[in-house]
Amino acid sequence: MQGKISQLWTLMNRSQLAKGQFIFLFFFSIVEVAVGLAVPLLTMKLIDQISSSGFSFTSLLPVIAVLVVQAILSAVTFYMMRRVGEGAVMNLRTEVWEHMLHLRCP
């Protein structure tokens, strides 16, 4: 198992990942998950408020706002993860292609 992990680290270092982007993306995805976890809590509060004092449009606004923020964060996170991943794959493919071009043909 230890050999597989060291091979993974070697591969990650070779792919020339943008470490700053990767760290930013990690924390950005944590924020996205936290906002996603806030939706059920706000929905619970909305249901409690509706059952105790009746429906009010203003009580629905925080839930709608959090859902919109979650959708935007989810889209940005997906785009950035895909961009970082495709960049790593592109760097690895370029390295393999350059290696193949320098091989001798029999």
TrEMBL record:
Instruction: List, in alphabetical order, the Gene Ontology terms for molecular function in this entry.
Output: ABC-type transporter activity; ATP binding
Q: Which residues cross the membrane?
A: 21-43, 55-80
Q: Organism's domain of life? A: Bacteria
UniProt-recorded name of the protein: ABC-type multidrug transport system fused ATPase/permease subunit
Q: Which key words are in the record? A: Membrane, Transmembrane, Transmembrane helix
**Localization (cell):** Cell membrane
Per the record, membrane topology reads:
Multi-pass membrane protein
| Top-level taxonomy | Bacteria, Bacillati, Bacillota, Bacilli, Bacillales
Report the PROSITE patterns cross-referenced here. ABC_TM1F (PS50929)
- Ribonucleoprotein: is it a keyword of this entry? no
Q: Which InterPro entries match?
A: ABC1_TM_dom, ABC1_TM_sf
A GO-annotated cellular component: plasma membrane
What are the residue boundaries of the ABC transmembrane type-1 domain, all occurrences included?
23-106
